[in-house]
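Working notes for the structural subgroup meeting. M.R. asked for a predicted model of this chain before we commit to crystallization trials. I am recording the input and output together here so anyone reviewing the notebook later can reproduce the run.

Input as submitted:
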Amino acid sequence: MKNKYIFLGDIDSINIELIFNSFSKLKKKVNYIVICNLEDLKKYKRKSNSNIKLNELSDPLSFNSLNYKNLNCYNVAPSKIKIDNLIAQINLCNKLCNLTGYDLITMPINKYTFKKKIIFKGMTEYFGMLNNQKTIMLMVGENFSIIPITTHINLRDISYKYETKLNDFLSLFKILINKHESLKKYENFIFLCFNPHCSEEGLLGFEDLTIKKYLIKFKKIQFKLKPADSAFKKIKKKTLYISFYHDQALIPFKILNQKSYNETLGLNYRRLSPSHGTAKDIKHKNIADNTSYLQCMIN
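Returned structure, recorded in token form:
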């Protein structure tokens, strides 16, 4: 069985509900330790009347000490400040995964909480900063997968230095295609055009002509350049789409994939995350869908 760590994430969310409600389904399938403030789990347990027992570990590196009948947790000494708690937990998770090579599952967070304290675009970028490595967001689905070159930034900033962004991405992708098993399974690679209709031979802008020039030079794999409005009509299995910006590919991805998760490429370990947010509007209602969380745990 695989060993994994779970970063509990924001407790003003469905995170604990997902972990508790999935506990029985994961028995004998994966070994995992939840990195958290243990009191948060105890409070939820009391409120939900859950019969799950918690097993507090004294050493987060000792998977030999797991109690398979209980939910195994490692308590990070809490601070009165929420963001300090979260950052301490993330940093410990990163350290543990670098030491062991085990997978890390990060549960959803509220980005605004982080942005009030530190410069923060998202977890993909944060882990890159922590490890001084360039990272890529890979969204994995059962029908197809996507990589957005830019993630959580203002749309008006996408075209700024777009050629530099493209060159940096292809340089990193060339390295990662050999390094990560997650990328080796794809057989079809489609690059979505920057402008409508692939710029109509330059009438709507020169960006797609530049992209085409770069892709021809990329000898590692063969990309097909396609307009985004028709690229998802006929999808072949084992297809990876590359988009320049977030919603260009994330919208069809979330509509056409029922089983999906987020993976960070470029680290020395696998970091996975459910492909949804905190969903705090439905917390404590016991209606949260655990499909994406289970995909993170079993893959």
